């Protein structure tokens, strides 16, 4: 029987009970690296929004968004503890490593989820609060509990959870959802499949052992390379749209165009090179650059709106 059909971690007796967890174990449950990316993109959305936002409101809102992202990570780790124990890059996480009991992690995640939504709603507005609540639910329930174990489109649809932060940040400042925030959402949404599928090409054996139906395991590596190229062909021009609509300045437009061209070049290499170590190397290069691709244009956008560097 595939692990994908086994009971989730919080139903397994061996993972329930008291733990001797340290504060650092609970911090690890929050997935701090993912949290930092969420805060960064939310801040970009917040600063790119029109009007003036009170600094205290902005800081409290960013704190709430960070806590909400961490809560999502904790809930994800609870449910995925069984497959995390199998995969090399995740088996030392606090729950599969036995440092945190799943029941405690579940309570931790639920409490932080409620706290983050309430704080964001009260500090800014309930549009932003509702978006944060929807993001937590989408990641913890729709993606983690359903999509991840049932469809090779898990990353495509589930990518919405990671794409919401700039929209939430924009809503903090404006109390609304606009086309500008939808474009920022769309960039991250379209970026997610080539980013994660590059990793999936490298780690396909581990995903197979864990019973996760990632694209390379279900449709094959060649189909995955084609999908990566298609999404990147959409992403390259999409990344320039904020400049076209006036949300980003000339510096943003130049960086987005260069970064998009480079991202496309790496995707073409993944599509072309299909055998041996060279194929893995091409996938690693795309995965590594994809992180830089997301950071650079958003950093320029943040600088343009924070320091008045637009020209």
Task: Give an overview of the whole structure.
This protein has 311 residues and is an all-alpha fold. The chain has two domains: 156 residues, Tetracycline Repressor, domain 2, CATH 1.10.357; 134 residues, Four Helix Bundle (Hemerythrin (Met), subunit A) (Up-down Bundle), CATH 1.20.120. It is built from 15 helices and no strands. The longest helix is centred in the C-terminal third of the chain and has 32 residues. The protein starts with 22 loop residues before the first helix and ends with a helix. The N terminus is likely disordered.
What is the structure about, briefly put?
The chain has 311 residues and is mainly α.
CATH 2nd-level architecture of the largest domain: Orthogonal Bundle
Q: What's the mean pLDDT score?
A: 92
Number of strands: 0
Main sheet specs: none
- Put simply, the count of helices is 15
Low-confidence runs of at least 5 consecutive residues:
1-7, 9-17
Order of helices and strands: HHHHHHHHHHHHHHH
Distance between the amino and carboxyl termini: 59 Å
Key structural traits:
single chain, 311 residues, mainly alpha, Tetracycline Repressor, domain 2, Four Helix Bundle (Hemerythrin (Met), subunit A), 2 domains, 15 helices, 75% helix, disordered N terminus
Give the secondary structure arrangement, pairings included.
Layout: H1 23-29, H2 32-48, H3 55-79, H4 81-84, H5 102-123, H6 126-150, H7 154-163, H8 165-174, H9 179-202, H10 204-210, H11 215-218, H12 221-238, H13 241-244, H14 250-272, H15 276-307
Helix pairs in contact: 2-3, 2-8, 2-15, 3-5, 3-6, 3-8, 5-6, 6-7, 6-8, 7-9, 8-9, 9-12, 9-15, 12-14, 14-15
GO cellular component, one term: plasma membrane
Membrane topology: Multi-pass membrane protein
Pfam families: UbiA
């Amino acid at each position: 029987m595939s692990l994908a059909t086994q009971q989730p971690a919080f139903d397994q007796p061996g993972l329930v009970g008291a733990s001797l967890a340290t504060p650092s174990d609970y911090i690890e449950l929050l997935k701090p690296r993912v949290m930092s990316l969420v805060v960064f993109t939310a801040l970009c959305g917040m600063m790119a929004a029109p009007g003036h936002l009170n600094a205290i409101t902005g800081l409290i809102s960013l704190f709430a968004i960070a806590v909400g992202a961490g809560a999502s990570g904790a809930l994800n780790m609870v449910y995925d503890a069984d497959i995390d124990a199998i995969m090399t890059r995740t088996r030392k996480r606090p729950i599969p490593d036995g440092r945190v009991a799943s029941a405690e992690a579940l309570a931790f995640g639920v409490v932080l989820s409620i706290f983050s939504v309430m704080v964001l709603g009260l500090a800014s507005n309930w549009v932003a609060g509702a978006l944060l609540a929807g993001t937590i639910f989408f990641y913890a329930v729709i993606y983690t509990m359903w999509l991840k174990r049932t469809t090779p489109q898990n990353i495509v649809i589930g990518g919405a959870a990671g794409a919401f932060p700039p929209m939430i940040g924009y809503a903090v400042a404006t109390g609304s959802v606009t086309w500008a925030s939808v474009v920022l959402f769309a960039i991250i949404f379209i970026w997610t499949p080539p980013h994660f599928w590059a990793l999936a090409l490298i780690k396909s054996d581990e995903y197979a052992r864990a019973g996760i139906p990632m694209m390379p395991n279900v449709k094959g590596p060649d189909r995955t390379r084609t999908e990566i190229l298609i999404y990147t062909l959409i992403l390259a021009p999409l990344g320039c749209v904020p400049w076209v609509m006036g949300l980003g300045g000339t510096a943003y437009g130049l960086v987005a165009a260069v970064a998009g061209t480079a991202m496309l070049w790496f995707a073409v290499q993944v599509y072309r090179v299909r055998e041996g170590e060279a194929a893995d190397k091409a996938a690693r290069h795309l995965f590594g650059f994809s992180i830089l691709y997301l950071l650079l244009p958003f950093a320029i956008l943040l600088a343009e709106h924070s320091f008045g560097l637009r020209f």
